User: Which sequence fits this backbone?
C-alpha cells in the first residue's frame, strides 16, 4: 500500500545527511504503529518520494512529506488466522497473531473442552487436545473493534478445521 507521512526535522538535522535523517525518522515513526484506516503498519518496504521541505516560520524546523509503500496487517471478519495463546481463564482465552490480540470466549470453544483451573498452567482440555499458554491455535475472527492505536478481535474455534494446530 502507498502511504504518506509528514516528518518535522529540527534545524540541527538540516544539512548534507538530511535525507538519511528523514528516512531513519520515517522508520521510527510508522513501523509497528496502528491506524484505524489501514490497520497495523508491519514494515516500510520502500521510500517512493521525499518532497521538498517547507520551513516552519518562526520555528526554523522543516516539514517533509514522505511517500512510501508498506506491508499492512488489517484483519477482517470471517478471516481464519493462526495465533499463539498467551492467557487462559474460565471465561475463555487470549491469543496473539503478531500485534493482534484475539479473545475466544467460552461460548466459542467446543463443548467437549472443559476448563481445568487445577492444571499448571490453567487450560482447556478434551480427550485429545489441550489449550494452554503458548499453544498454537487456528481461529476464525468473528468481529473486530478498531481504536486509534490498536485493533481488538473476538474469535471462535467452534467450527471444522479450527482449534489446536498439531
Assistant:
Amino acid at each position: 500500500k502507498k502511504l504518506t507521512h509528514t516528518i518535522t526535522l529540527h534545524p540541527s538535522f538540516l544539512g548534507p545527511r538530511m535525507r538519511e535523517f528523514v528516512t531513519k525518522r520515517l522508520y521510527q515513526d510508522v513501523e509497528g504503529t496502528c491506524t484505524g484506516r489501514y490497520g497495523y503498519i508491519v514494515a516500510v518496504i520502500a521510500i517512493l518520494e521525499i518532497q521538498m521541505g517547507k520551513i516552519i516560520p518562526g520555528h526554523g524546523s522543516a516539514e517533509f512529506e514522505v511517500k512510501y509503500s508498506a506491508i499492512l496487517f488489517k484483519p477482517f471478519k470471517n478471516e481464519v488466522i493462526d495465533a499463539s495463546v498467551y492467557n487462559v481463564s474460565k471465561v475463555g482465552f487470549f491469543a496473539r497473531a503478531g500485534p493482534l490480540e484475539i479473545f475466544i470466549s467460552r461460548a466459542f470453544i467446543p463443548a467437549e473442552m472443559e476448563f481445568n483451573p487445577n492444571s499448571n498452567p490453567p487450560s482447556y482440555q478434551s480427550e485429545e487436545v489441550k489449550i494452554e499458554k503458548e499453544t498454537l491455535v487456528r481461529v476464525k475472527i468473528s468481529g473486530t473493534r478498531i481504536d486509534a492505536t490498536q485493533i481488538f478481535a473476538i474469535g471462535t474455534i467452534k467450527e471444522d478445521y479450527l482449534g489446536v494446530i498439531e
